[in-house]
C-alpha cells in the first residue's frame, strides 16, 4: 500500500499533506512555491510510494466552480503529464482555509504564527486529506 498525497493548490503557494503507508493518519508535509510544485512532486514520488493524489476542488456556496479552478485545471494537466501513473481524485475544499485558521487558534498558536500563510496552506491540505479518508471509511 502506498501513501495518499493531498494538494491544496494556490497561485502562489501549494500546501501538501500525506498519509502514512497504511493510509490511516493524515499529516501536513510542506508548503511549496507553486512554480516549483511539479519538480517537488516528481522528486517526492521518486523517493516515496504514492498510490493516489487528492487535489482540492474549490467551490462556491451555490456549488459552482470557484474562480481559482481555472488555474487548478492547468496544474492538473501538468501533473498528469509529469506523473501519469498516479491516479488523481478531487475533494471539495470549501471552508478548509477557515477551518485551518480555526485549528491554529484552537492549538494555541500566537497571532504572529497564525499569519503564516504557508502553514494555513499545509493545514488546509491536511484537512482535504482527512476529508478524503473519512469519505472512504
Automatic annotation (TrEMBL):
Major localization listed first in the record, in broad terms: cytoplasm
MF annotations from Gene Ontology: hydrolase activity
Pfam assignment, any one: RuvX
Subcellular location: Cytoplasm
Entry annotated with the keyword Acyltransferase: no
EC number, as in UniProt: 3.1.-.-
Keywords: Cytoplasm, Hydrolase, Nuclease, Ribosome biogenesis
Keyword Hydrolase listed: yes
EC main group: hydrolase
InterPro entries: RNaseH-like_sf, YqgF, YqgF/RNaseH-like_dom, YqgF/RNaseH-like_dom_sf
Ranges of residues in domain YqgF/RNase H-like: 2-100
NCBIfam families: RNAse_H_YqgF (TIGR00250)
HAMAP family in the record: Nuclease_YqgF
Matching PANTHER family: POLYNUCLEOTIDYL TRANSFERASE, RIBONUCLEASE H-LIKE SUPERFAMILY PROTEIN
Function: Could be a nuclease involved in processing of the 5'-end of pre-16S rRNA.
Family to which this protein belongs: Belongs to the YqgF HJR family.
Entry protein name: Putative pre-16S rRNA nuclease
UniProt organism field: Winogradskyella alexanderae
Gene name as annotated: ruvX
